[in-house]
Amino acid sequence: MGCFQKHQVDHPIPVQALVKCKMQDNLEFLQWTKRYWDQHYPGGDYDAVARRKGAPVASGGGGARAPVSTGAVRRGTTPTTGPRIGKAAGGGPGSAALQQENNTLKETVVGLERERDFYFSKLRDIELLIQQAVEEDPELEKQEDGLVKHIQTILYSTEEGFEIPAEEAGLDDQETF
């Protein structure tokens, strides 16, 4: 806020609204900031070293970085493309290995989901058969040592540390991030 006062920017900054991380509030502030930048930025390449008058980067600024040429800057526009990650950016063999590992993990997840769905459908079919049998003969459920009672016990048991997900009711209509 001190920076805004130093440069005589009198636009109110809704800090409390921004802290709540509501998408609409943040978007409006970002749009205002972009419009302000477009109105007051002189254009041309940004030279951080000249702006600092050669002073070193404050701590937390990372290591020394090579200057990046951004090319021609058009006033009033926002660049929509940036450096690409991967082979086009010269990611090297480490990047290719990570990409391969990522693809392998994705294939594993697809296989596991297919297997999970297969066994879930089997269990669901067994559950429906048991429910149908109990509906036809309610005495089956009352038998303590009966096969139906044992199957129901297995079907509805949980392991330690496993929680049945509660249904989320009354979600806020506003998006938050």
Automatic annotation (TrEMBL):
Xref: Gene3D superfamilies: 1.20.5.1430, Calponin-like domain
Keyword tags: Cytoplasm, Cytoskeleton, Microtubule
The keyword Cytoplasm appears for this protein: yes
Biased composition (Low complexity): 74-87
Disordered: annotated span: 54-95
Domain of life of the organism encoding this protein: Eukaryota
Protein name listed in UniProt: Microtubule integrity protein mal3
Locations listed in the record: Cytoplasm, Cytoskeleton
Gene (UniProt): BIM1
Domain EB1 C-terminal: start-end pairs: 87-164
